[in-house]
Amino acid sequence: MSYQTSRRRFLQTTAATSVGYWVAGGVKAQESKSPNEKINMASIGIGGKGSSDSTDAGNFGQMVAICDVDRGRLKGAGKRFADAEAFVDFREMLDKLGDKIDAVTVSTPDHMHAPAALAAMRLGKHCFCQKPLTHSVYESRVMAKVAREKGVKTQMGNQGTASNGIRETASLVKSGFLGTPKEVHVWTNRPIWPQGGPRSEPKDPPETLAWDLWLGVAPKRPYGANYHPFAWRGWWDFGTGALGDMGCHTINTPYMALDLKDPIAIQATTSGHNGDSFPKWSVITYEFAATDTRPALKMTWYDGGKRPDKDLLDGDIPDACGSLIIGEKGKICSNGNGSGYKIYGGLKKPETIDFVKSPGHFAEWVEAIRGGGEAVSNFPDYACGLNELVLLGNLAVWEAPEADKTGKKVAWDAKAMKVTNIDGLDHILKPTYPEGYQLDG
Q1: Which pLDDT belongs to residue 8?
Q2: Adjacent-strand bridge partners of 355
Q3: What is the maximum alpha-carbon separation in the chain?
Q4: Cα separations (Å) of 438 from 14, 31, 118, 376?
Q5: Residues 121-136: what's their mean pLDDT?
Q6: Can you point out the beta strands (E) in 73-131?
Q7: pTM (2 decimals)?
Q8: Helices assigned H by DSSP within 110-251
Q9: pLDDT number for residue 35
Q10: β-pairing, 297-303 with 341-344?
Q11: Alpha-carbon distances of 116 from 91, 243, 373, 380, rounded to whole Å
Q12: CA–CA distance, 277 with 217 (Å, rounded to integer)
């Protein structure tokens, strides 16, 4: 089977990105900034990953507003951005300074990504949003739709997308270097936070924390010590578990290389979970139908200390995080974010590999804002598909609540956005927002 067509498509996509056209359709985006014009930035969430995201925003533009539900963090960030106005509620920030803001970064817990990003994009603001892009599949679909309708420049925070390693790997695989692709394995050392246990005892939130705003669109519950500022990732109401934390990094290489969209079935085995906190570990199998560029294949995900058999790596011990693409002629193993890789099977790396280099992940987004192009990891054409693939794995995790027992296989109809064989998963696929936040419309 030849993969030259797929490779040409990949090169055309990345080349189109670099010269200033939409990846899909070659249509110029709206209201690009001139190269010398300052981009007025606002950051929603300035702690954790938001610290580096807001720093990037300040380095590439003029920071006019910062927002965080923790006033302690706001105070610290105010020293870095002395000219920026501070807010604890992003809705107030957008209402007051909407006409002064060109672009926003969103670096909140997962459940608040879509509410904040959608509010900004609906006002015509360019948007950089951390991975996973959303907390639910439906939110991901809405994010893609709104980004397209508004013509805004977007990017998900999976930084490895801009590395030479992932683009080289994708180009190699698409060229037929491995021959017919057979299977994929992806793994991570997450979770590195407490997960799989009960809630901590309710207590008063820190004086600096606006707990109701932190909860946002999530169901109400008392504050507990194992939510803020980091362990929220392990709770179904707020995070997306180990898969959501690292999937958009570690699955990124095979996703780019093999067009791994729209699995037809997903099934998991886990350590067990109570429907409140994610399991301590999981092994998830995705099944993909054949496309015009590759045959049907399976991808297996491992977390919580689980790893693929070292025999698959010819005896090498798997790194903490990585991905392995196995073809009929050989294998390529990439590190966690895809920036580096190793070839197995005696294959010799070509002297030249065609791919478009990136100016840097955040710089790619800024160039899109200034020049009318698209970052590779933009919402409609790339990030939403990868994000949806990642989130679908948690449907299978939900259906595997008993320890060490394989759960029900989830049959997925991507076009209809529907599980076709199991009822009761709608609450994971599509959230209901409380009054004061907007999902649709």
Answers
A1: 42
A2: none
A3: 62
A4: 33, 25, 8, 27
A5: 98
A6: 85-87, 103-106, 126-130
A7: 0.92
A8: 113-121, 137-150, 164-174, 211-215, 241-250
A9: 61
A10: unpaired
A11: 8, 22, 23, 17
A12: 18
